[in-house]
Amino acid sequence: MPLPRKRGTALRQRLAELRGPAVPPKALDARALAALAANPGCRRRAILDGAGVNKATLASALGSPSAFGQSQFALARGNTFEARVKADGGAELLRLVHEKLDPGAVPPVKAEVPDLTAGGPEGRTARTALALRDATAAARAGAGTGGWTLLDHPMLALDVAGSPAFLEPDAVVVHPDGSWTVVEIKSFPMLDGSADPAKVGAAARQAAVYVLALEEVAARLVQGGDPAPVVRHRVLLVCPKDFSNLAAASAVDVRKQRAVTGRQLSRLTRIEDIADTLPEGTCFAPDLPAGDLTAAVESVPAEYAPECLSACELAFHCRDRSRARGAVTSLGRSVRAELGALTTVDDVLSAAHGRSGDPQDPTVAALRRAAALRAEALRGTELASPKPELEPGLEAELEPGGAVCR
Ligand code: SF4
């Protein structure tokens, strides 16, 4: 649901202040959205992404540069492959869509490729919606015997935690029956018809975000008694065939990814609510002194988990802080879930050694049993082997209950 205009303007102003004066917003892409949805409890990431803060630049300014991102070489190779696949009015691309997703439709001879140029992301989003509406109406008027339409780099908007995110799929195809298909073009190879499952999974999550955004457009296009256009849940993944420049394609069912991502995005805390909790004057501009920047980042609660290492540019910074606090989430979400209300390593050790916690609590009881078993095992080890000579001072650290993990 879009915000009323006045509130929307106030929020945009607030987010611009958070980003810093004259810092242009970094657009959220579908890859970032899919990652955002993978950690819906992290308010830090939600507000930084919502405000369009460049997290890679921020991580460097904090002294913990991120370690992932696509190399310039891979980007250039991907762009060249995409241009080749879309050459000649998208003839090869449409042939693949017809072959893999809609073999019963009339074969594409020549596709319509509407001009989507317009000023700014809002203008391009409106232009895309008009092109989709016209192509769908033309297809329906032809009762499924009409032509194909290729939208090259359309722009879609998706409401994310109360703020619009603008997304740019590689292509969207309108079929002769008026249905819509998302096309993802990737530069990783498809060998003998199959590709790296992790990369295909990431591409499917990304495509699912586009499907969600297209469904919002389709819902807005419902007019009169006409049904909403159908957004297909099987997308087309196009990759280089066996390291060549030829295209190979595969239909990927993204129903599961669409359901998970949709649910996660709807659970994101509204950006407005997070912004309201920040201290006056909070700013994430990368040219601020490191101390101020760290304080600003730390003023927003984070939910670090090891999965952040492959999904968020701030992972090294958040991991250091999480470890320094002794947060159990840094050991993984499953460990966190097992430990219930005990959120720090100190809480866990205290409960395990009987210094705190309700003995009736199943988690506390399990920890005490584990601590007793460990102590028993250590006693057995002591009896079985002579005590090693220890440096003075190290002995104290190895006393039962005072074990130190090095
Ligand atoms: S790395 Fe930090 S900011 Fe990013 S999702 Fe994880 S906890 Fe949140």
TrEMBL record:
Q: Where is this region: Disordered?
A: 382-406
Native organism is Streptomyces lacrimifluminis
* Name listed for the protein in its UniProt record: Secreted protein
Q: Report the domain of life of the source organism.
A: Bacteria
